[in-house]
């Protein structure tokens, strides 16, 4: 248990969240649409259709729903795919602050999409989590 806690605290203390430029949307499309022009930054195939994460302007031009504008926060810590605790620590802190979040784990980093109007508040929460993890490590 101590090793697990230590690993999670280390990832949280090194996460260095960065708010990316631009606004993004999550869209669900049928296979009939040409997705190449959407320049997706992420996709996931579900039984109901293909989920695409793309810049809001690209989705608007394609006539897709852009009503939920999201901002992308990248956690700049090398998080192993088998790492334990980073997602939980981040998502719990954001939930406690009343901030909806969509986590996307990629090969090198984890990314969080939050409503655009809550992005600055989310950054403050994440920096607070990072500071708390650094303090906790100092006491171990």
General description of the model:
This protein is of the alpha+beta class. The protein is about 35% helix and about 25% strand. The strands form 2 sheets. It has a 4-stranded antiparallel β-sheet with strand order 1-5-7-6, covered by helices on one side. The protein has a 3-stranded antiparallel β-sheet with strand order 2-4-3. The chain is elongated and about 55 Å long.
Defining key terms:
single chain; alpha+beta; VC0802-like; 4-stranded antiparallel β-sheet; 3-stranded antiparallel β-sheet; 7 strands
Summarize model confidence as the mean pLDDT: 87
Quaternary state reads single chain
Instruction: Indicate the low-confidence ranges by residue numbers.
Output: none
- Judged by helices, strands and strand pairing, the structural class is alpha+beta
Annotated CATH topology of the largest domain = VC0802-like
Overall shape: it is: elongated
Helical amount = 25-40%
Cross-sheet strand order for the largest sheet: 1-5-7-6
Q: Tell me the domain tally.
A: 2
> Quick one: CATH superfamily of the largest domain?
VC0802-like
Helix and strand string, N-terminal first?
A: HEEEEHEHEEH
Strand content of the residues, in percent? 25-35%
What Rg is obtained from the alpha carbons, in whole angstroms? 17 Å
Number of helices: 4
- What's the story with the biggest beta sheet? 4 strands, antiparallel
CATH class categorisation of the largest domain: Alpha Beta
CATH-derived architecture of the largest domain: 2-Layer Sandwich
What's the total count of β strands?
7
């Amino acid at each position: 248990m101590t090793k697990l806690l230590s690993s999670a605290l280390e990832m949280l203390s090194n996460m260095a969240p960065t708010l990316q430029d631009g606004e993004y949307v999550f869209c669900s499309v049928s296979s009939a649409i040409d997705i190449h022009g959407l320049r997706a930054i992420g996709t996931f195939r579900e039984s109901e259709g293909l989920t695409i994460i793309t810049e809001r302007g690209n989705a608007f031009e394609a006539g897709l729903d852009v009503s939920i504008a999201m901002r992308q926060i990248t956690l700049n810590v090398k998080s192993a795919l088998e790492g334990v605790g980073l997602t939980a620590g981040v998502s719990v802190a954001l939930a406690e602050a009343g901030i909806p979040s969509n986590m996307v784990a990629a090969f090198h980093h984890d990314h969080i999409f939050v409503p655009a109007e809550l992005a600055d508040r989310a950054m403050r929460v994440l920096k607070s989590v990072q500071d708390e993890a650094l303090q906790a490590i100092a006491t171990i």
